[in-house]
Amino acid sequence: MRLRWLCGVLLLILCSCEKKQHVIVVPPVNVEVCEVSVRDFTLTVEAIGNVYENAIVQIRPQVQGILLRKYFEEGQFVKEGDLLYEIDPRPYQAILDQAKAALLKDESTLELAKITLKRNEELIKKDFISKLTWEQYQSNVMTAQAQVEIDKAAIVSAEINLDYCKIYAPLTGKLSSYNIFPGNLVYINDPNALIEIRQLSPVRIQFAIPQVYFQELHQIQPDHNLTFEAILPYKTNPPITGKIYFVDNHVDLQSGTIIIKGLIQNEDLVLWPGEYVTVKVFLKTIKNALTIPSAAVQVGQKGSYVYIVNPDMTATTRNITTGQKDKGDFLVLSGLKKGEKIVINGQLNLKEGSKVNIAPKAVKEPLK
Asked: What is the average pLDDT across 181-190?
């Protein structure tokens, strides 16, 4: 009886010590995917540029006199040909009147010299006057003609100086602040300009690109009108398109960059001289390029990689080589094929060979 009791106790101990085996089933990872797409991809070069006025003119007097009046307000926009200043014209009007009177006098002298020469023409033929006297009459005519030409030139000079008394805008632009006020004496070669005009439409954009991109740009530029976009740092306005018109003739030895200049019409005056802008130069377009969303690209010890979703609904990693980024997509240089499904959301929960579950309507159509 006691032996049976001991056997029962031992059986209970053995049953309680028996290890139970459990099988852990890992559920599929929910992910979002898209297909490797094919589209035309534009290669660009980005740089930081500065905005400059297309032209700047310092208004200076070309005659001396009292600055009588101004016809504008400082900071005003003016058009080419608008009247800006007037210098006291009275001294120059008097000089012009004097030159015109001298012309009348000398024209009369010329007329008398011509009449005298003609009257003595028959007399010289009959030797009634000396040859020396005849030559004197001829000289008087030529001298009077020369004096008339001098008077005409003096009139032109006086008219020019009189015109200089009114100063007009040589181009369309925005005025600076006043440097000299009406009532002051102004004179030629005054180191202080009366005012400045800056042309703000169009404006110039100047930037520099590394020499590594120069050869490609140099090959394209002669045959194509290269375009670029200027983006303001605060990005409240859409990119503004312009055309490149200047490529410098050398690469800077210190920076290894080359100066590029472009022109933007700036009709709405969004850009202002002195501002910094981000410049994107469009080099060329690659037809039928492979692209993937930037969200799909992961970076590991061996470089960039993505998760590929296989037909058996497992995920595997694939090392890839990417190029430039455009509109949120990376250019794929190697490692992928058109139509392959790649994970764009949920990579943190994946590892090699993980089962995946594609959420309904998560497969995105390729970009066209």
From this structure: 91
